[in-house]
Amino acid sequence: MNFGTTEILLIVAVLFLLFGASRLPQLAKSLGQSRKAFKEGMREAEEEERSGQLNNAAPAPQITQMSDAELKAEMERRTAAKAEH
Predict the structure, then answer these.
(1) Which terminus of the chain, N or C, has less C-beta within 10 A?
(2) What's the rounded Cα separation, in Å, for the pair 36 and 40?
(3) Is residue 27 a contact partner of residue 15, using CB atoms and an 8 Å limit?
(4) C-alpha closest to that of 49 among 85, 79, 83
(5) So what's the pLDDT on residue 33?
(6) What's the whole-number mean pLDDT along residues 27-56?
(7) Residues 61, 74 contacting (CB under 8 angstroms)
């Protein structure tokens, strides 16, 4: 859905008449915060879904405690497991 310049100006004018000049910045800020919170929630849900799928397989080892060879083997194991799904 694309809005042209005329539609955007009309929407801004209606908002200005409804809320007044002093409340428009507050409205814009709350809309931005709501959008940010929604995106954060979606990202967290996706991460939980991914971690739930990984937890069904095997527990993930701590990468910082792995040697290079172990890290390579773990990456290959995860790639193979992902290809199977």
Answers:
(1) N
(2) 6
(3) yes
(4) 85
(5) 92
(6) 83
(7) yes
Which DSSP symbol is given to 62?
A: P
Instruction: Kindly state the tokens that stand for 10.
Output: 């009309």
The percent of residues in the chain predicted with pLDDT above 90, rounded, is: 9
Do residues 73 and 65 touch, judged by C-beta distance below 8 A? no
Spell out the residues 6+ positions from residue 54 whose beta carbon is closer than 8 angstroms to its own.
60
Global pTM reads: 0.43
Residue-range domain boundaries for the chain: 5-60
Residue 28, SS3? helix
The confidence score (pLDDT) of residue 85 equals 63
Instruction: Give a three-class secondary structure readout of the chain.
Output: CCCCHHHHHHHHHHHHHHHCCCCHHHHHHHHHHHHHHHHHHHHHHHHHHHHHHHHHHCCCCCHHHCCHHHHHHHHHHHHHHHHHC
